[in-house]
Design goal:
Layout lengths: L7 E5 L6 H9 L4 E5 L18 H6 L2 E2 L12 H17 L3 E5 L3 H9 L9 H14 L1 H11 L1 H6 L5 H14 L3 H5 L10 E6 L4 H17 L2 H11 L14 H8 L5 H24 L4 E4 L6 H13 L3
């Protein structure tokens, strides 16, 4: 009988809580390779706004699942699961330790809890849904979804364009409600996970940190980065890559929808809302080790929480 494989280590938490910095600290002690769990970092050209590690950082510590796709593409949770499983296998084959780092909860949930067998997307169907939304509004399309998939509609906010579009697309392509397909979820990895989350007790401090972080991104050239993406000519704000927090608001500013001051304020507010959603999801996650990122002993806590998966004493 082959020995049981060690659990996979995960370092997660809301945006802006220092997950990457802690992962680098751990990499000084353990033979770590980082597997990014970030839905913006998978796209090439989305660098500053996604807090993507620099070339020097990636040279110092190997990173995976970064710069996988052009921003014209739609990278799915299913693709992430396949790519993450392969990265984990490759890292372990080299005798090193995979550490999953990031806060895209859809990806993390798919990897740990399993993923439903979904049909391939249809650009033509999506275009039709978008045209209906432009004419009728997303709340009306949400009502349409509720007529054949009450369960999915109950989970999706009437203004959540991306999820409404996907649920309608799945039904149009497969003839089955997305909730029915999700009920047939299969586990992609027969592995245990050791999950640690950096969740601050002081929400006001987190909010201030997020505002300062976005200001630093602006100082680092985020507006010019978004301008370069617009100047490519092959991107629209309907693409998943450009729906990322910060990019969406600055894109709208450059399109003339509102001032730069308003764009920054909306981006900061959206970042706070994202952090809130991430924390809500994490609170429901079983067997989660929670550490306050503002605790002076946070590294000691993270190290102790993850050491079982590293196989070190």
């Amino acid at each position: 009988m082959s020995p049981a494989r060690p659990p996979i280590a995960v370092l997660t938490g809301p945006t802006g809580t220092g997950k990457s910095a802690l992962a680098f600290e751990l990499a000084r002690e353990f033979p770590i390779e980082i597997v990014s769990v970030d839905s913006a970092q998978v796209y090439r050209g989305l660098d500053i706004g996604s807090a993507k590690p620099t070339a020097a950082e990636r040279a110092a510590v190997p990173h995976h699942l970064i710069d996988l796709a052009e921003p014209t593409a739609s990278y799915s949770a299913g693709q992430f699961v396949r790519d993450a499983a392969q990265a984990i296998a490759d890292i372990e084959a080299r005798g090193r330790v995979p550490l999953l780092v990031g806060g895209t909860m859809l990806y993390l949930r798919a990897l740990i809890g399993g993923i439903a067998p979904m049909p391939h997307g249809s650009p033509a169907v999506r275009a039709g849904i978008d045209a209906d939304a432009a004419r009728l509004g997303w709340p009306e399309l949400h009502a349409r979804l509720a007529r054949f998939d009450h369960e999915a509609a109950a989970r999706i906010h009437p203004n959540d364009a991306q999820r409404i579009q996907r649920a309608l697309e799945v039904y149009a392509v497969s003839g089955e409600p997305i909730s029915a397909l999700q009920a047939r979820t299969r586990t992609p990895l027969a592995r245990d996970f050791v999950c640690t989350a950096l969740i601050p007790a002081d929400r006001a401090r987190l909010h201030a940190t997020l505002a300062q972080r976005f200001e630093a991104m602006m100082g680092a050239g985020l507006l010019d980065e978004v301008r370069r993406l617009r100047e490519r000519g092959d991107l629209t704000d309907e693409l998943p890559a450009l729906r990322a927090v910060g990019y969406r608001q600055l894109w709208a500013h450059l399109a003339g929808s509102y001032s730069l001051e308003t764009a920054v304020a909306r981006a900061v507010a959206a970042t706070r809302q994202l952090a809130k959603r991430q924390m809500t999801w994490l609170r429901a996650m079983p067997n989660l080790k929670v550490i306050d990122p503002y605790d002076a002993q946070r590294f000691v806590g993270v190290r102790a929480a993850l050491i079982a998966s590293f196989g070190r004493g």
